[in-house]
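Below is one such record:
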Amino acid sequence: MADVKPSTPSSVPQKSLVNQTMDRRSFFSWLTCAWLAFTAAVTVSGVTMLRYLFPNVLFEPPTQFKIGPPDNYKVGEVFEGWKATYGIWVVRTAEIVYALSTICTHLGCTPNWLDGEKKFKCPCHGSGFRMSGVNFEGPAPRPLERFRVFLGEDGQIVVDKSKKYQQEKGEWTDPESFIKA
């Protein structure tokens, strides 16, 4: 029987990095993968950078809009048809027509018109406002705001929400805060 020598680490042939060879097909496979990864990284970075060049676009309703002729609104009533669309209530008294903001002056909630009680009542903290917009109960520190209203050339009421009138500053007497009915 022949002597069998146990294999030792020195007797097992090992490939060094210098002796390893890569065939042509493997090289081009690795090169293709590397270019694809590089292209993907550059594309993602480019798209991310381009995103910052374009602003976020938010839709905001127009600040000036027509709401129809004064005859469309009944005397002594609050019209709530523009509450959701434009954020206003239209109030007509025997003398004037005005547009009130639907934002509570306490913390910005939207009050509800309670026709049976003839008042606006805020569901968040209980502020109450008269039909005129004046606060009389709850934590609201001041009355509701009015918006500029005027008659357009075609006889329709135009509301301009870019101009607000506050009662505590004496602005409700301004002729642009109401129109005569």
